[in-house]
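Milestone M4 deliverable, item 7.
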Amino acid sequence: MVYHNLKALIKGIRACKTVADERALIQQESAAIRASFREEDSFARHNNIAKLLYIHMLGSPAHFGQIECLKLVASPRFSDKRLGYLGIMLLLDEKQEVLTLVTNSLKNDMNHSNMYAVGLALCTFANIASEEMSRDLANEIEKLLGSSNTYIRKKAALCALRVIKKVPDLTDHFTVKAKNLLTDRNHGVLLSAITLATEMVQADPTVLEEFRNAVPLLVRNLKSLVTTGYSPEHDVSGITDPFLQVKILHLLRLLGKEDSRASDTMNDILAQVATNTDSSKNVGNSILYETVLCVLDIEADSGLRVMAINILGKFLSNKDNNIRYVALNTLNKVVSIDTNAVQRHRNIILDCLRDGDISIRRRALELSYALINEQNVRILIRELLAFLEVADDDFKLGLTTQICLAAERFAPNKRWHIDTVLRVLKLAGNFVREEILSAFIRLVAHTPELQAYTASKLYTALTSDISQESLTLAAAWVMGEYSDSVVEGGLVDEEQPKPITDKEILDLLLSILDSPYANYLSRQYVLASITKISSRSTTSVAQQDRIVEVLAQYTSTPELELQQRAIEFASLFNLGQLREGVLERMPPPELKATVMGVVSENKPVGSSSGGDLLGSDDISSPITNGPTTGTQQDLLADIFGSSGQASSPASTGTASPPPTAPSPAPVSAASPPPPTMSSNPLSAFSLPQSQSPAPTPAAPPASRLTSYTAYEKNTLKITLTPQTSAAKPGIVMILARFQVSGGAPATGLTFQAAVPKSQQLQMLPMSNPDVAPGTVETQQMRVIAPVGSPVRLRLRIAYSLNGEAVQDQVDFAGFPPGLTGGA
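Output delivered:
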């Protein structure tokens, strides 16, 4: 059965009872349409294309109708053109060769006397134009931008937007016409023109400067929208054309960025928009949010910035979760710009921690981390500990890390610091990083006046809960070291000490060994702990014999690490006085800041690989900091050539500015994630030693060190100052200094280095990638080389000077011989 029009076809398809019937009907109708096309029946073509487009919408093949659509477009009747262009937009895309046949039809219709025919051509162009078609019809589009018809101007502006996206080189082609359109009074034309201007400004910095002259005009347009009375044509929930207001604010944000003159021009209107816009409805909130983004991006005065942050604070009390999420996300970005203004909304941010939406809790948590300082550390840590009690497991690892890092940095006293970490260990001891536990042990070792107090608190906590792994490990270590202080002074309480015996301490530690929560690491700690306790003067002979029996039991355990420790510890009991020296209290390890990364609970915060970069005797793997343009192998091949050459390097280093962190400690921007607590089988008593850093060498007086110029071009000078130690031959510390002799700064400096295969290189981040005239930026490097071998470097330097990108590469072998020791 042949269906003569679209309505009949739709009725027939709906009457099908099965998918198979529908498929058969569509195939039959497609065959009939093909046959009709071959007959070249111009009257039936319109109906056939309409039916074919419906078939295409149902997902069946309709590509055989592409040429027929072109024939419809060539028809003088408007209805045929409309259907033909619709078919072209649906059946063609910019990658098909048939598209070249459409260009001429589009050009003819763009010059048509009927504005609606012109509109059809423009609409089709905006949807399917390819790069080639954009170049061919750019002049036609430019001409239509000056049309007297607002309907055509509006569509032509959107077509110009398509041209710029496909061919950015043609941006200058439309600059003058786009600026003229900004004076248009028609809201539709103005909306299209601002969209076009926004794209041009983002695509070409030179156009940005030209459009900055239009800031007063945009301010005037925005003011008229804000102050105008009720306009039924453009009113949305009581606000005049919010879409146009948001577009203007977005363009002003781009034009005012890093330009104080343009920013001054728009300050007043931004304040007016912020104060006069109704925030009770979502339409007003969208305008206020765009206003806030504009204020925070331009060179606004401080009062306006505070007003913007206050608007975000008001958003936080909104019932709509989307608005609160947007406010928290934006505050996270601006907290580093004006922390004090954000601090005023601290209470409502903390209230968001109790929100039912997990994404809001997560954003509020990240913002809370950034707000902690010396003045509010007690309040915020108390709130974070309260949240830790009820937080999901996904939050706990980041929470425990950030709480302990904040306590380490801002603690008012050591007693409060220890109490805070103890509370964390009790609440979420299974979610504590190894670095945090190591830092806590260092803290206790360096606080002799609180060692008995800490041991007492850990004993009490462990008595009530032995399921928290980090609490168990910390208690085992501290009890092993300071059990005699607890036995002599009793359990320290708020009122008076409570007596305790060595048997009670030993009973608690031994209960861990048989606990269902114990793992091989906690058993290792306990064995080391009881061995330490056995050498204390407060331990009775009976308890020493008990310890010997326990060690004897573990000498035959199937766990190799435990067996080895038990045998070694048991053998100490046969060494007499030597045992006392081996098991005496450890000297306090060197105190250092815990290595930290980006303040975010989603990202690794602690890492043991970055802190020992300077001064450790261990040779670490090569470190690459900052973004690289390819893989490490690509960089090596690029710098040193083929891998078959004898001078192929063993390591490279690239440094970028360190991520924002609440600690001055050096951190590797690409450090590997830290291992979990149970992954390290080291003894509890070697833990602090393994974490203690070698001191970062301070720069000696210039008179004792010699600097060597490695690079001096384009006003940028780089000198390398080596420093060696007779106690560590083969290790060379190199301080790179970056200076600019001209009047222009060198910005975005990237400093890469590589050494031959026989050597290794490690780098800390650069102090600042932007080198201003009169300042000296520095970067530390360490080269590990065979003793007696010369130090050779291949350097790649990339930077921008006066807006021009510069990239250079040099080989440096100017260090004196014998730098690595030896002969």
